[in-house]
Amino acid sequence: xxxxxxxxxxxxxxxxxxxxxxxxxxxxxxxHELEIQGIADGDVAAGVKGFDPITxxxxxxxxxxxxxxxxxHRLKLKFNxxxxxxxxxxxxxxxxxxxxxxxxxxxxxxxxxxxxLSDGQISKLVGTTKPTIQAIRERTHWNISQIQxxxxxxxxxxxxxxxxxxxxxxxxxxxxxxxVMSDDERRKLVSTEQSLEMEAEPRIPTAIEGLETFTLGSAxxxxxxxxxxxxxxxxxxxxxxDEEEDNSDDPRY
Length: 253
What we know:
By secondary structure, the protein is mainly α. Among the domains are: 7-83, no CATH class; 97-194, no CATH class. Helices cover 42% and strands 0% of the residues. The protein has 12 helices and no strands. The chain has helices at residues 7-17, 22-29, 33-41, 61-69, 103-113, 119-126, 130-137, 152-155, 160-176, 183-188, 192-197, 240-247. Helix 1 (7-17) packs antiparallel against helix 2 (22-29), helix 2 crosses helix 3 (33-41) and helix 5 (103-113) packs across helix 7 (130-137).
């Protein structure tokens, strides 16, 4: 399916000016649904000016009205000769000048959270060179102490669908090689769509965390203490003076 020109800017315009669902917009512009939600929240494509698809002969108002009234309708792109062959273009990924300083942060994020990705895969995702990736892997980059890992999707260097595709490819390769994955590695190799469909793992409330080894049964029985009556407190031993008084009646004294 052909994609519109300036897909991200078109998505911005559709989010701002229509009530079309995120899923419909994502299918039309070739982006991930979470990216469209990020545009609506202001986390993705900040500062990108919307590109009107009606004025630029990519959609009709009737097509937009149909999509707004029917959430299951898929937007159809008008034939535009200028867009012919747009997806067949080959060559290295172009990174705008304003985002090139963000590439080291995205490389560090990929190296840290997806170590199964090869240098070539990372290079294609964020449009960088293998020596730069190797320097960050070995922590010999000149600015490594100042680099903080940031998701390349959040930086706009790649699409979520592209990242998921590469991760799934790495997962298939791992299985083909017969390697055993840990739980953490298995979670990293799951795509975003699959992770959203998973059930949340049960967790222990923080209020009782650390007490999971204790049982909630009955408490051990306590030993019964002897009952002490009030009179027992007054049965004190006789003092020396009391003994002398008692012995005064004795004729031997």
